[in-house]
Structures are given as structure tokens and as C-alpha cells.
Amino acid sequence: MKARIITAIVALCLFVPICIFSDTIVFPLAFAVLSLFGTYEMIRCVGAHKKYGYSIPLCVLAAVAPIYCYYSAYRAFLSSVWPPVVGTFSFMLVIQFVVMIVLLIGAVIRRGKDTVPDMATLYMMTSYVIISFASIVLLRAEHNGNYLYLLVFIGSWVSDTGAWFFGRLFGKHKLIPEVSPKKTVEGAIGGVLSAAAAFVLYGFIIHRMDAALAPNYLVLAIAGMICAIVSQFGDLIASLVKRHYGIKDYGNVFPGHGGVMDRFDSVLLVSPVLYLLITYIPNFILF
């Protein structure tokens, strides 16, 4: 417990400056590091960390993606090299395609020594990690992005806390015990309601801070519920993969908490979903 508390305090002390300097290169660099560690943890989980034909290209891609998103959004000179991808889904498709090609060519070169299920898991999960951390940078580049990207963390962390609290108080019915034995239906509902309330409260607070912003409280509440549901699935997805490969934690980057995938499992699915909602759903305007 002591290690968990100390780690949480240190992480918070690092997170706050990253938020303060979110309009500088500090922001994408921080998420490039998280993307790199998260991707490596998935590679190691599958047992491919010593297969350098896979691991090195995937880790390079993981580290480059958030930085590229930053420069494609804020630096016009890149447009002469590669069209900016912010505001489109093309970047995510490119990531998936590159990961797929790396794995398929590697599997052929290794002459079938790697199992198809492992390659499929590696494809899905490394694409998932890279796209998710890159999406946080893309969210920051959106209009009012200095407020938008924080919803990723509010949605996931408040949902986790609300689910734990309501589960402890009212939990009687197991949610999916085969994947996560401790989660309950009552806790899941509590997490959804908590996130919806937190999004509405967040909208009220930033409106008080900046009167020019006009929060759409109904859309905020809906977004909060969607993010909470997605967040809980993100947690369950990470648990499902861990259970399949028989590991307790993905890593030990955060003492007492595990690895990046253990700490950010509920965040990962929220960021691309929120990005797609505000980018592609007409009139899905939060403020």
C-alpha cells in the first residue's frame, strides 16, 4: 500500500506539469514514452520481446506516432512531406496497416515459427496501444482541445472510482467473473453515473473559468456515460489478455500499480472513441 501511495503521488506530480505544458513538445513526448512502454509490455506479454524484427519496428512506431501527431497538427511544414492527418481517420488506418505489414513479413521470414493467434493478438493490441496514446495528442489539437483531452482521464478514472465505490456498497451481481471476478453490475452502473455527473460538473467548472465557453450539459452527460462504458470495457480487455497469457501485471513501471497497461488500461479505449465522437458525429459538441 505504501508503494502504491508513493507512486500515485509521484505520478500526479508528473502529470500536472504535463498538463500545464500541454501546448508544447512536452505533451507528445510524455505520451510517446507511455506509448513505447505500453507497446513493449504487450510485445513481452505475447513473448515476442526478443524477436527484434517485430519488437524494434513496433517500438519505434509507438514512440514516433504521438510526436508525429503533434507536428502534423501544429507544424505546417510537414504538409509538404505528408498530408496532415488531424481531423481524419486515415492516421489510425496507416498505423494498423504498418503494424500488419511488419508482423506479416516477419512471420513469413521466420517461416511459421510464430503462432497465428500470437501474431493476431500482437497486431490487435499494439495497434490499440499506439492509436490510443496518439489519439490523446489528436484530441489536444482539436478546438478547445486544452479542455477536451482531460475528459479522457476524467471519464476513465472517475468511472473506475465510482465503480469501486458502488460495487463495495451495493455490489451483489457479478459482471463478467470469467474475466474480472471482482467487478459487479451495480459497480458498473455506478461508474457510468459517476462519469456522467463528473462530465457535467467539469463543464460547469470550465464555464466558470472561461465564460466564453458554453457547455452542452446534455451532450456532456451522454459523453460521460459513453466514456465510462468504454472505459470499463478497456479494463476488461486488458484483463482478458492478461488472463489468457497467465500474467499478473504487464510490467513494473509504476511500483505497486504494475505497468503502463495496468495503469492506463481504462484510458486506452476512451481516447480514440472520444476523438471519433467529436470528429465524426454531427452536432456532438461538448462546449
Quick structural overview:
The chain has 287 residues and is mainly α. It has helices spanning 2-20, 26-46, 52-74, 90-109, 116-140, 145-148, 150-170, 185-209, 217-245, 260-263, 265-268, 270-280, and strands spanning 174-176, 180-184. The protein folds into two domains: 1-141, no CATH class; 144-287, no CATH class.
Characterization of this structure:
The protein is mainly α and 287 residues long. The chain folds into two domains: 1-141, no CATH class; 144-287, no CATH class. Helices cover 72% and strands 3% of the residues. It contains twelve helices and two strands, in the order αααααααββααααα. Strands 1-2 form a two-stranded antiparallel sheet. β1 (174-176) and β2 form a beta hairpin. The protein is globular and about 60 Å long. Mean pLDDT is 87; it is low at 76-88.
